[in-house]
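Hi everyone, sorry if this is the wrong subforum. Our group has a chain we'd like a structural model of before ordering constructs, and none of us has done structure prediction before. Sequence below.
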Amino acid sequence: MAEGSNGRRVALVKSDNYLAQDHLLRRVGQLLAQGDSGVRYADILHSASHNHSSPYYSTPSWGVWIFQDVVDLRMFEYQARAMARAIEEAAADLKPARMGAATVQHSLYKGNITGPQTADDGSPAGFPRDHGDHDLTVLRFDRYAPDTEAGWEPLAAWMNFGQHPESLDSYDLITADSLAPLERYVERDLGATLVFSQGDVGSAEGPYDGWNRGRLDDGTLVAWAHVGHAQTERGARLLADAVVEAWDAIGGGVVPSPDDTLVPFASDLEVGVTDGWVPGPVSHPVPTVSNCRSEPTLGGDPGVPVARLPGLRTGRRWRRARPLNPIVQNLKAHGIAVPDQYGAPAFTGVHRRRGEPAAASAGGQARRRRAGFVRVRGPGRPDRELQDAGERRGGGHLPRLRLDRG
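Answer:
Right subforum, don't worry. Here is the predicted structure as tokens:
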């Protein structure tokens, strides 16, 4: 919970849900309207962890049921009440505080699951294994403590980084995956609560065993995805070290690298949240699921949406290089619009909300250049702003906070 010098309150809420959904937040808003927290639906920045090993049957969106479970309104209401209660408790226990922020680079616990591929015409496609958003952003909150020598005590940390928490899903256990050890390590090191928010999670996964990423100086294999609990925790330890590094950089007023960014401590700041609906591009006006490529289909190698999720062609021929389809090329040459992909309609299949405050969090399978990420804007780095839909725009300075707890 944060209250700015302008009197507005914002709740930074993290859940271990697969996706961040609008229905849930609207119900939370209804419950909060009955209390006196001063927070409403539009004042909540909800960060879903996208954990693959947590129970998730609180969404009425049928598309998610395929990957998770059918909706149970009891879980929906339980979560809504728990989130509203947490916000109410935080609002009742606000403390004078200061806030600073830093962005540091971290690449060890990061990979690109898409990886290098070959396009239909044989040209290189896909992404390098190290392609991704390597910015790790941390907001540091210190509580005013006049009875201590420093005058301040650690209160909370809010972080944003993209990585898939799905390495333990094959064990068929309910776990928080890599986030549990991450939070444990950071909270033990800092003596402050950690609130995690997801970044470019869609393609951020790995490294896997077999990617040949080498070993650490102590001999540890650089592979964290789907290689067991020990490797998952080791990768989380490395990420926790980067969070602590950013926290210390805020406290010391110096970032470790010229590529990093620092916003110094301040206690007299304003906060605010904006929210908006962003329609799809003209090339994809209708939301679809299980997309298939048009060119191989018109060339005699059909792909059937939904029959095999997510959007992969049957057989192995789709991976082979092939010449461009003359039918498609001729149609395009004559000005006839031919979509590059097609898929099954997905209206109501996934329903989630994305806000656009200066600190933003992706709600689910967001990929780099598609989702809003945290950008810290500081001295000498005016380009570090909110990035949304692959386009940099002025996101303003980070929210100025006076209080934080919960």
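For your construct planning: The first strand starts at residue 2 and ends at 3. The chain has a mean pLDDT of 80.
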